[in-house]
Amino acid sequence: MPRTVLIVDDERDANDLMAGLVQARNDRPVQVFDGGSVLEAVQRHEPELILLDVMLPDVDGYEVCARLKRRRATNLIPIVMVTALHAQDNRVRGVRVGANAYLTKPFTPAQLYEVMDRALAWRGEHMNRGTAGEIQFDIRSETDYLAELNDMLTDLYARTPLTERQVKDLKQAVMEMGSNAIEWGHRKNADLTLRIIYRIEPDNVTLIIQDQGPGFDPQHVPHAAQPDDPIAHLDVRNELGIREGGFGIMLARGLVDEFRYNDKGNEVTLVKRFESTGAVGLPEGD
């Protein structure tokens, strides 16, 4: 069955090019040429995917993306940001709602189709799993921006069945592990982007914190506190000339119901299960 793909680009040639490529896959393109018309087009055509240019004449693509991802009705529509901006000119300068994928112009048809397939697979996975919503945040690697994001997340937690105690636990766990990623994963390089994924599942809230660092062996962290001997690591830190501390990982483990690193050690998942059932979701609108 043909899928509806909304294409948002103010340059007609680029918009027509993407529309032709979408149509060549037997999908149905819907073309929009400014950011202000996107929400109406989404409501009218109910697209399965949005190809969104960054540089629009009225509302930039990042703001359009943020509006769609913060709405309950449009949160699970995958968004691919299509931009001519180079990575070095496009660094996150604060807190930004992230898209599902990014594609830099010029691109080949194969590159476009590959990123479309990944975005559609993301939607299918979450629809099958019953996910109520997911928002990806990209932030500059500074603790002030991490704290700003944590406040935004707290507002989202309030729309779930999490108790006040659970919200406090999750907020502290995010701050601990986000700070750890900035300090150790990024070595305090503020230009590196920290990604935090907020996901509402049927029975829990899941937070995934991803850094761009080389990672580490999560099974061997001698400078971090361990449950069986919480202070032995202090001697190691002293020998290495590292400031006192190292309790963040152990503390975060105790604040959530599930805590796990990926094999590479540059992604940590925090899960907090609901104590009771209730309405779960995102705001209806801005």
TrEMBL record:
Every Response regulatory domain range: 4-120
InterPro entries: Bact_response_regulator, CheY-like_superfamily, HATPase_C_sf, HATPase_dom, Sig_transdc_resp-reg_receiver
Gene Ontology biological process terms in this record: phosphorelay signal transduction system
Residues that bear 4-aspartylphosphate: D53
Matching Gene3D superfamilies: 3.40.50.2300, Histidine kinase-like ATPase, C-terminal domain (3.30.565.10)
Lipid metabolism found in the keyword field: no
PROSITE patterns: RESPONSE_REGULATORY
SUPFAM superfamilies, A to Z: ATPase domain of HSP90 chaperone/DNA topoisomerase II/histidine kinase, CheY-like
Keyword tags: Phosphoprotein
Protein name per its UniProtKB record: Response regulator
